Amino acid sequence: MRLLEQGALSTSWASVSQPFLERVSSTIIRFVRTTLTIAELEARKLRHDPTELLTRAVQPALWLLVFGQVFTQTRAIPTGDLRYIDFMAPGILAQSILFIAIFHGISIIWERDLGIVHKFLVSPTPRAALVLGKALSASVRGLSQAILVYTLALLLHVKISWSPLALIGVLITIILEAAIFSSFSLIVACLVKTRERFMGIGQMLTMPLFFASNAIYPVSLMPGWLQAISHVNPLTYEVDALRALMLVGGTSAYGIGSDLGVLLAVTVLLVILGGRLYPTVVI
Amino acid sequence: MPGDDAMHNSIVQTQGLTRCFGPLRAVDAITLTVEAGEVFGLVGPNGAGKTTMIKMLTTLLPPTAGKASVAGFDIVRQAANVRRCIGYVPQVLSADGTLTGYENLLIFAKLYDIPRSEREQRVRDALAFMGLSDAADKLVRNYSGGMIRRLEIAQSMLHHPMILFLDEPTIGLDPLARKVVWEHIERLRADYGVTIFLTTHYMDEADSLCNRVAIMHLGKVVALGTPAELKVSIGNPDATLDEVFTHYTGDILESGGSYRETSRTRRTVYKLG
Ligand SMILES: Nc1ncnc2c1ncn2[C@@H]1O[C@H](COP(=O)(O)OP(=O)(O)OP(=O)(O)O)[C@@H](O)[C@H]1O
Ligand SMILES: [Mg+2]
After folding, report:
1. Residue A4 confidence (pLDDT) above 80
2. I need a labelling partner for A64 at 20 to 30 A (CA). Which of A26, A228, B210, B248 fits?
3. How far is the CA of A65 from the centre of ligand 1 (A)?
4. Predicted confidence band at B169 (pLDDT cuts at 50, 70, 90)?
5. Which among A207, A145, A134 has a CA at the least distance from the CA of A170?
6. What three-state secondary structure class fits A56?
7. Is A114 in contact with B92 (Cβ distance < 8 A)?
């Protein structure tokens, strides 16, 4: 038998005869490492061509500077103790991340057509790591939005909380939101398989997700049916957590703990589901 | 864990391997073996089922019926083990144009668990082997078609696989680039002893470079043997492989709507080139 073959066979023997615990921990380590590798890949792409981040900056700027300032003047929307601009800043942050993440999945259709997905799938990388890695890359883009929104908020004298704990909380919340909506969008991409259909569905979903949340008005102002929808919309919990974490004197309606719990649970669910569906994109 | 098949040297074994797409039997009960160390060529008209065959053997596509093993591992039940032993270059030009050549390889070195201490060297070696050292830090978007193909082959051999699956490695390349790619594939086999399973539309390539060739038509293998055996089988030892091909597949150049892959290939070449 050939040398090469013997080598390959004996290494695979070794991995089979490892004790159980060692195998579990090495599986977890591998999962984390490959996830980070996929995220690194995306970060490298972004570094080669960061123009995307600049064009992404326009929308949140418009919302805060135009819509926000006008509605703060008119005081049309009752927001309790908060000025309207303070109330809406976390909502716009969440919205800008939603808009990035919800179209993120189209990249796998593109990469499928380029044969890149095939190569990932033929490698021993765990499927869920491929999904989570992509999700984290959406989070990286989300963070750039956060920097922008914080800067604008500062200019608009929003009462931002700078406590380190609050900032870390915001960071985690943002990462989870980007992970949720990008995995969701990846799942949609795996199901519809073509760019055209994907764009259609993406456009159809974004505005309803945005309006059926507490991003720019409180849930209490909504009609009953919309309130019901807003309660199963992860964006609502996202904004709720951000509002409490980002603002001085901000409060959460559902409790930060349960907000983060909901977001984490949805993330895990979608990443697992995405991992199941990912291989079907090449069929 | 190596299966029984590892006892003798067959690195690929299929038994009645079948894949249907709706009513279409894209691969129809194929039984064949590939021996370790050989260059095995799969030829056939557009839509014959070559890519479908490779996708099953590389665990991308579950078979509808039949079974197969690669490197002694079952492609369905032991897919994870199969993946560790194989390298694959898809039909479309598949390097990431927005990264440099070096980065393309680095990411895969990480995904294949090549230890940090060896990674850099392995990547540099693979680039040098494929004659891409000078272009390593250029964005792949600026590579020529031939360079992309060589980069992809470098990528697929980083982890020193036992077998490489190359789906039309020379499609869309000019004659010179084709020749260069082939020289590298040859050297790969000579230096690393890697088994090569490839598909091609170029009969002259198959003739001079493959140890054995299987001719596929409408999902079935209609002839299999060394190029010399195939020529004898049609009663003309001096025939070209083109003539053998026509003999077995008829004059029809296309046997089905394999437009999907073909159009993707074109688009990719266009986009990257
Ligand atoms: N995902 C799919 N869904 C439906 N039909 C498919 C799919 N993939 C392939 N087919 C069909 O299966 C048949 C075999 O396709 P395959 O791509 O394997 O052919 P091929 O021999 O590789 O052709 P080519 O030389 O053009 O690459 C074709 O008729 C093709 O249209
Ligand atoms: Mg093909």
Report:
1. no
2. A228
3. 53
4. very high
5. A145
6. coil
7. yes
In single-letter form, the type of residue at position A36 comes to L
Average confidence (pLDDT) over A63-67? 92
How far apart, in whole angstroms, are the C-alpha atoms of residue B108 and residue A183? 22
First to last CA, chain A: 35
Whether the CB-CB separation of B149 and B132 falls below 8 Å is answered with: no
Instruction: Read off the amino acid at residue A5.
Output: E
Which of the four pLDDT bands, split at 50, 70 and 90, describes residue A12? very low
CATH of the domain at B141: 3.40.50.300
Residue of A nearest to B75 (CA): A122
Protein residue with its CA nearest to atom 1 in ligand 1: A283
Contact list in A for residue B71 (CB cut-off 8 A) is: 5, 8-9
**Which letter, b or e, does each residue of A203-229 get, where b requires 16 or more Cβ atoms within 10 Å of its Cβ?**
eebbeebbbbbbbbbebeebeeebeeb
**Sequence letter at residue A92:** I
Q: Are B39 and B210 in contact (CB under 8 A)?
A: yes
Closest residue in chain A to residue B272, using alpha carbons only: A114
Domain count, chain B: 1
Buried b (16+ CB within 10 A) or exposed e, A53-72: beebbeebeebbeeebeebb
Identify the band that residue B51 occupies on the pLDDT scale cut at 50, 70 and 90.
Answer: very high
**pLDDT given for residue A72 in this prediction:** 85
Measured between CB atoms, which of A2, A3, A115 is closest to B94? A115
Both tokens of B111, joined, read 């995904």
Region of poorest pLDDT, from A43-47, A164-168, B226-230, B254-258: B254-258
pTM of the model: 0.89
Q: Which domain holds residue B142?
A: 4-272
Question: Is A182 at the interface with chain B, CB within 8 A?
Answer: no
Averaged pLDDT score across all residues of chain B? 89
- From chain B, the residues in CB contact with A14 under 8 A are none
Dump pLDDT digits (tens) for B106-143.
Answer: 999 999 999 999 999 999 999 999 999 999 999 999 99
Across A164-190, average pLDDT: 97
User: Which tokens is A68 given?
Assistant: 């926000």
Tokens representing A41 are 């890949």
Confidence of residue B259 (pLDDT cuts 50, 70, 90): very low
- Chain centroid offset of residue A52 CA: 17
Q: Which of B58, B111, B192, B266 should be substituted to probe chain A, the one whose Cβ sees the most A Cβ atoms within 10 Å?
A: B111
Residue B38 CB neighbours (<10 A): 18
**Nearest to residue A89, comparing CAs of A145, A135, A144, A51?**
A145
* Partner residue opposite A48 with nearest CB, options B9, B85, B99: B99
Residues whose CB falls within 8 Å of the CB of residue B5, separated by 6 or more in sequence, listed in order:
B13, B69, B72
> B55 and A125: CB-CB below 8 Å?
no
Mean predicted lDDT score pLDDT of chain A: 91
**Four-residue CA torsion sign, A93, A98, A99, A100:** positive
- Number of C-beta neighbours around residue B20 at 10 A: 15
